[in-house]
Write a structure and sequence with these properties.
The structure is a single chain. The chain has about 425 residues and is of the alpha/beta class. It folds into 2 domains: about 1-175, Flavin prenyltransferase-like (Rossmann fold); about 190-420, CoaB-like (Rossmann fold, 3-Layer(aba) Sandwich). It contains 14 helices and 19 strands. An 8-stranded mixed sheet has the order 12-11-8-13-16-17-18-19, sandwiched between helices. Helix 1 (about 15-25) packs parallel to helix 2 (about 45-50), helix 3 (about 65-75) packs across helix 5 (about 100-105) and helix 9 (about 190-200) packs across helix 14 (about 405-420). It is elongated and about 85 Å long. It binds cytidine-5'-monophosphate. Cytidine-5'-monophosphate binds near residues 324 and 345.
């Protein structure tokens, strides 16, 4: 793939060298376009040596090659790291004041910004508005990492780790892949993807994922077989569509996706508290977590001992609250207007009805807007890499089937989410 790496003028510019390495080692060709200011931190010679290509930041170098048009046109991906407040502002305003901003205006493929700046700059209403505008237009703008900044200060503003930016960039390309698997040509994003990008950019999406663990004592718990793969894929797909994604993760067997704010929880009650709080400013909540329906009524504060002189312990269970039902109930008072709630259901048919009948009844009972239904049989869903679902909506529309990898299913769900968020 042809990658353009734009480098902004911040101290984190040196980390872009590691990012460049990740791309070249994965077999991609990279053209670096540093801003004038960034060359005070890392010089052009470094970029030329590491990329093996000539490097310039002026539209007046190699004029015969029309670089200010060609580089953006030919790039399958443009990554800007670090994206400074100034660079975000110029990109949002559509300025063409140097080679990098010209290239951004000519972009045909996905564009990802990895911001780095002081916390005050990141939180300034001007930057907030610029980021929102860029996301609305379909760019992926990662949230900066939280931690120590250049001076004595700390907070959100650190450049995300090169590996995180690399993975997020690959996910953005993945989301932009056309149906036949080729890279997007001139404006040839799949219509559905383009629509999802347009609608979800700048929206806040909360995804719950994984299986909760309900303690019996400090070392033992009741758990379930959820791997969290589908929930993580959903978080990845929503982030690739430009949404600000918050992942509330119970136990996961896979790492959370890069560029996504992750809140780790263990029990159903912890998941409930975080989800109800996150829902207050979420445009979409996707409840993909496998929440335990019951928890031990009296977890022991110390390890339950095996004792020959005592009876075997009996565990009494009590019901956990139904978080999705609570979200539906709380929505009219505390949620943003038009909030969309998505539930998951693992169903089996039996002699009294088919999967679809049970699923429709559940959708009605739960009161959410979309229900993603798995038809479960022995080992069919849990932990597997493939999935096979039906997406039902409350308006009684035709169920949408989606099958394939969990990433493909996630994209189908995200497309349906976008379609239901779109003004009708
Ligand atoms: O009723 P059932 O457990 O099949 O519903 C599954 C859906 O409800 C999933 O979206 C799951 O995340 C959610 N759920 C919940 N709170 C519970 C149990 C399930 O929000 N206590």
């Amino acid at each position: 793939m042809e990658v353009v790496l734009g480098v902004g003028g911040g101290i984190a510019a040196y980390k872009a060298a590691l990012l460049l390495r990740l791309f070249t080692e994965a077999g991609h060709a990279v053209t670096v376009i540093p801003t004038e200011a960034s060359t005070r931190f890392v010089g052009i010679a470094t970029w030329e040596a590491l990329s093996g290509r000539p490097v310039s930041n002026s539209v007046f170098d190699q004029v015969d090659k029309v670089n200010h048009v060609r580089l953006g046109h030919e790039a399958d991906l443009i990554v800007v790291a670090p994206a400074t407040a100034d660079l975000l502002a110029r990109a949002a305003a559509g300025l063409a004041s140097d080679l990098l901003t010209n290239t951004l205006l000519m972009a045909r493929g996905p564009v990802l910004f990895a911001p780095a700046m002081h916390t005050e700059m990141w939180r300034h209403p001007a930057t907030v508005a610029n980021v929102e505008l860029l996301r609305r237009r379909g760019a992926v703008v990662l949230d900066p990492a939280v931690g120590r900044l250049t001076g004595a200060d700390s907070g959100p503003g650190r450049l995300p780790e090169p590996e995180v930016i690399f993975q997020a960039a690959l996910a953005a390309v993945d989301a932009a892949l056309s149906q036949d698997g080729s890279l997007p040509q001139h404006g040839s994003l799949r219509q559905d993807d383009a629509t999802a990008l347009e609608i979800l950019a700048g929206k806040t999406v909360t995804v719950t994922a994984g299986g909760t663990r309900e303690p019996l004592d400090p070392v033992r718990f009741l758990g379930n077989r959820s791997s969290g793969k589908q929930g993580v894929a959903l978080a990845r797909a929503a982030a690739a569509a430009g949404a600000h994604v918050r992942l509330i993760s119970a136990h996961l067997e896979v790492p959370p996706p890069p560029g996504v704010e992750t809140i780790a929880v263990e029990t159903a009650l912890e998941l409930r508290a975080e989800t109800l709080s996150a829902a207050k400013d979420s445009d979409v909540v996707i409840m993909a977590a496998a929440v335990a329906d019951f928890r031990p009524a009296n977890p022991s504060g110390s390890k339950i001992k095996k004792r020959d002189d005592a009876d075997d312990p009996v565990i009494r269970l009590i019901r956990n609250p139904d978080i999705l039902a609570e979200l539906v109930q709380a929505r009219p008072q505390s949620a943003p207007a038009g909030q969309l709630l998505v539930g998951f259901a693992a169903e089996t048919g039996d002699e009294r009805g088919g999967v679809l009948e049970y699923a429709r009844a559940k959708l009605e009972r739960k009161g959410c807007d979309l229900l993603v239904v798995n038809h479960v049989g022995a080992g069919k869903v849990f932990g597997q890499d493939l999935n096979d679902v039906l997406i039902l909506d409350r308006d009684g529309g035709t169920p949408i089937p989606a099958a394939g990898t969990k990433d493909e299913v996630a994209r189908a769900v995200v497309e349906q989410v976008a379609a239901h968020l779109a003004p009708r």
